[in-house]
């Protein structure tokens, strides 16, 4: 990340900063890795620690499926309608391990009458369909189709959808970062990186609310949603600066790296975290060696599970997969193009497909919510 600021801030950190009534603003340091990682300094109209009352907690998360058989999996979520009421109720977790949780969110209610904070995970919201505004205490970000929204843990936010939307949800137990291979020693994205800082959209408008009232903040931690009532809004921030903030990045701003022969998935890497990566497959020219085979080669995962979320376009290596569905190819068995797709790909000049790939280095497990989406015939789909 790079340095960004919005609103009013004092010249020096941890010094007196007063409003027009000569009252001190309340400084809050939001830091990662204790005091050793990226951080931002927020300046509140009122202290952010004053809890009006606690309203208990409710269980929130997932139950694991009993199905632990090793097999290729197709989760046919393509044509599924609403997954629940509001933004939190509509989250359905489908594949989970200790490092990452992957699911969908197709909400019926487009706005939130409360605030939300994930107290233990960074979040990536991939907007498959729809548009809206991400309102955060660090400012607002407008988003649209095919945007990634990257929200660091502890950032308080509300999401407002302007239309019916479908969202891929990724919750990360570790910080979400740009790939090491594309950064220099100071963290700047390199010249050969497939995207750069110009493509990253930080908050641009600070939405400061200093009115008193009752403000519900739901905090997700340890498998529960904890309900806090505050007298002042968490959006009472008058200014902030630092390196820790939410941002948007559109998948179509990813510039694909191509070559004479088929390039391996790491060239599509967009984000990294502990024990998993996220890659972006976007429209691109195919390989230009005279004997090139555009379709991917068969692959045996030794130590990773591969999830593909089929977003848009024609998925030339797969049959019977609609956009909005998932495949999970676990480590331990080979996977590859469906029969006939390799020969058919020869001579093709380009692809229009869009997909999000999540490769984990620890096994993923299905949840109870995933069971109804499992395609029982998929393991046999490579038969001629």
Structure characterization notes:
This protein has 384 residues and is mainly beta. The model has no long low-confidence stretch (mean pLDDT 95). Strand 19 (269-273) and strand 20 (276-281) form a beta hairpin. It is globular. The strands form 7 sheets. The protein has a 7-stranded antiparallel beta sheet with strand order 18-12-9-14-7-6-28, with no helix packed on it. It contains 1 helix and 28 strands.
Q: CATH architecture of the largest domain, please?
A: Sandwich
Q: Residue-averaged pLDDT, rounded?
A: 95
Share of helix among residues? under 10%
| Count of helical stretches | 1
**CA-based gyration radius:** 22 Å
Beta-strand residue fraction: 35-45%
Total tally of structural domains = 2
Classified in CATH, the superfamily of the largest domain is Jelly Rolls
- Major sheet: order of its strands? 18-12-9-14-7-6-28
CATH topology (fold) name of the largest domain: Jelly Rolls
Order of helices and strands: EEEEEEEEEEEEEEEEEEEEEEEEEHEEE
Taken from the alpha-carbon principal axes, the silhouette is: globular
Q: How many strands, which pairing sense, and closed or not: the largest β-sheet? A: 7 strands, antiparallel
Structural class: mainly beta
CATH class of the largest domain: Mainly Beta
Give the number of DSSP strands. 28
Q: Indicate the low-confidence ranges by residue numbers.
A: none
N-to-C CA distance = 48 Å
């Amino acid at each position: 990340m790079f340095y960004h600021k919005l609103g009013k801030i004092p010249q020096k950190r941890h010094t007196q900063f007063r409003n027009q009534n000569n009252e001190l603003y309340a400084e809050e340091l939001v830091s990662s890795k204790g005091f050793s990682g990226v951080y931002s300094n927020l300046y509140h109209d009122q202290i952010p620690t004053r809890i009006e009352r606690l309203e208990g907690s409710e269980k929130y998360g997932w139950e694991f499926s009993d199905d632990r058989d090793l097999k290729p999996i197709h989760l046919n979520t393509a044509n599924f309608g609403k997954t629940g009421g509001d933004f939190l109720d509509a989250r359905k977790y489908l594949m989970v391990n200790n490092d990452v949780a992957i699911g969908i969110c197709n909400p019926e209610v487009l706005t939130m009458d409360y605030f939300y904070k994930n107290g233990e995970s960074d979040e990536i919201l991939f907007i498959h369909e729809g548009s809206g505004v991400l309102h955060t205490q660090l400012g607002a970000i407008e988003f649209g189709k095919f945007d990634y929204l990257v929200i660091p843990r502890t950032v308080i936010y509300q999401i407002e959808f302007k239309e019916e939307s479908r969202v891929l949800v990724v919750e990360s137990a570790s910080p979400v970062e740009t790939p090491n291979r594309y950064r220099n020693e100071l963290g700047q994205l390199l010249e050969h990186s497939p995207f750069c800082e110009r493509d990253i959209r930080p908050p641009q408008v600070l939405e400061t609310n200093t009115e008193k009232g009752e403000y519900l903040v739901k905090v997700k931690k340890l498998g529960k949603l904890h309900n806090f009532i505050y007298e002042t809004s968490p959006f009472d921030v008058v200014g902030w600066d630092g390196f820790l903030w939410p941002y948007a990045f559109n998948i179509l701003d990813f510039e694909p790296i191509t070559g004479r022969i088929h390039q391996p998935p790491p060239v599509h890497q967009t984000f990294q975290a502990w024990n998993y990566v996220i890659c972006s497959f976007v429209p691109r020219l195919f390989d230009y060696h005279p004997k090139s085979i555009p379709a991917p080669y068969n692959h045996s995962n030794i130590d990773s599970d591969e999830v593909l979320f089929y977003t848009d376009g024609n998925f030339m290596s797969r049959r019977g997969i609609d956009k909005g569905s998932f495949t999970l190819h676990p480590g331990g068995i080979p996977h590859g193009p469906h029969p006939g797709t390799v020969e058919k790909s020869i001579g093709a000049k380009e692809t229009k497909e869009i997909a999000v790939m999540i490769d984990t280095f620890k096994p993923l497990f299905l949840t109870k919510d995933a069971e109804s989406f499992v395609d029982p015939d998929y393991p046999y789909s490579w038969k001629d």
